[in-house]
Amino acid sequence: MSSRMGVFQTPSGYGLRYLWEGNGTPVLFLHGFTGTHESFATSVASLSATFSCVAVDMIGHGKSDAPPEVEKYRMESVVEDLYALMVTLEFPHFSCVGYSMGGRTALALAVAHPEAVSRLVLESASPGIVDERDRHKRRQSDERLASEIETLGIASFVKRWEQNPLFSTQSTDIVVQERSIRLSQRGHGLARSLRGMGTGAQEELWTSLEQLRMPVLLITGGLDEKFTSINKAMDQKIHDSRHVVFANKGHNVHAESPISYNKVLSDFLCDNG
Predict the structure, then answer these.
(1) What is the pTM of this model?
(2) 178 partner at 20 to 30 Å CA-CA among 35, 67, 159, 184?
(3) Please, which pLDDT band fits residue 1 given cuts at 50, 70 and 90?
(4) Into how many domains does the chain fold?
């Protein structure tokens, strides 16, 4: 089984750090805001015996570059850079697994390159905000958070971020593990990510859901009522989708229930029906 770390020079002009582990059908893993490729470590370890798992540090995160130009963080640009990475690795057709921010990115990638994405897994993700006024309010909220990160620093931000109700269901062990990843981030990278590809900055994709023709797996935690409701609505619009709700779990299902999550993920990715 092969394993290597690499840095891909993207078409938009920055270094994108990635881990490639295993052999077989390729799967691209996209983490959430404040995460890194390590966020999917248990999934990669579980699936790499069967799949070629490619896990990246998204732009501005981990050891990928955090360029100053916010335009490079725009969803359209990020999607093209990720697609170019997979083509360069000689994976023109691949499955894509995305969590939260990474889920929004995975969906945008599938919409932009439906011929490339063979299977799509969206965990605790959304297609964005339809109402322009609500999107404007979210942009303002993201800008306040970005400014706070830049002003107060990572440690202060992480302490506040851990109080987010989305993560209230996580055990102490998970919180400690996630804290280590978050504290390794750079404030300017997270701030630019919020400004460039935050939920308020991204164009909504609700109207694109009906165009998807690849099989889609939607995953949410039952205690995450907001995203479970959003995904129920998504499930009604997607041609070939299945929504799996993990009872008594919250927003980050792959961290809260890794064994069951990886089983559902593997079954879906291996299904040729």
Answers:
(1) 0.96
(2) 67
(3) low
(4) 1
